[in-house]
Amino acid sequence: MPETTFTILIYVWMAFGVLLFPLLLKIPAPYGRHSRSGWGITISNHLGWLIMELPALAVFAYFFLAGPVEKNVVTWLFFSVWVLHYANRTLIFPFRIKAREKRIPASIAGMGFTFNIVNGFFNGYYFGFLAPHYPQNWLVDLRFLLGLLLFLTGLGMNWWADSILIGLRNSGQKHYSIPKGGLFRRVSCPNYLGEIVEWGGFALMVWSLPALSFFIWTVVNLVPRALDHHRWYKEKFDDYPPQRRALVPFLI
Ligand code: NDP
To answer: Is the pTM of this model over 0.90?
Structure first.
């Protein structure tokens, strides 16, 4: 695909995400605690997550590896951090979540699947077919160093917070409870905050349009969901900590 076509497609994809944002602020994505009828047939939560996330791993890896662009230590590092995140999200996370009987609308899994195909394609194709040569000294560039630091910090926050949330049902509970400790003292959704920091870091360390577009889409997906979760917690629990914000300590 010519680079100009690729670039135009990414701008269209980013514009779509920006236009979708106000809609997502109004309509909570109907899975997890916001599940409701009217979204068609449902499938098992575990299967849903596996299906949704697999393209982010497989499509990205395919185009990264299939393309003619010569790989070096820098691009392999980009590959490694992406795969590190998505190996967990695709192959580990779906099997850790509790409440086996929970279901997700097939339509939502389908949207997640499509979203991950597009993002996996854009990022994988960029590295495989279009990326400029990243010289070895990119490893000491401030963008790379700060981006990697943000990525690893976000990954740590995301994994830690997901583990705390999953652990809330360790004794077989099916209900929701108030998560406590660490960043949960400040925000309702540190897992989403971590994910946003992670992909912001990735965009910075790679310094590419596809990575920026993925960061924007992560914000578009997770800011509304964090606000929905926060509202839900406050309605559900009378004793919900009043100082806690939705996503960003002291701010949002
Ligand atoms: P949630 O925080 O809604 O849920 C994560 C898991 O923890 C679910 O199994 C959920 O159960 C359980 N859980 C959450 N809160 C509680 C609680 N208070 N009490 C008991 N159990 C709880 O996250 P999502 O499912 O929306 O997302 C999962 C991961 O995927 C996150 O790390 C997120 O960052 C990532 N993600 C990334 C996106 C992107 O655009 N990059 C988009 C969407 C998600 P239940 O399912 O029953 O609610």
So the answer is: yes
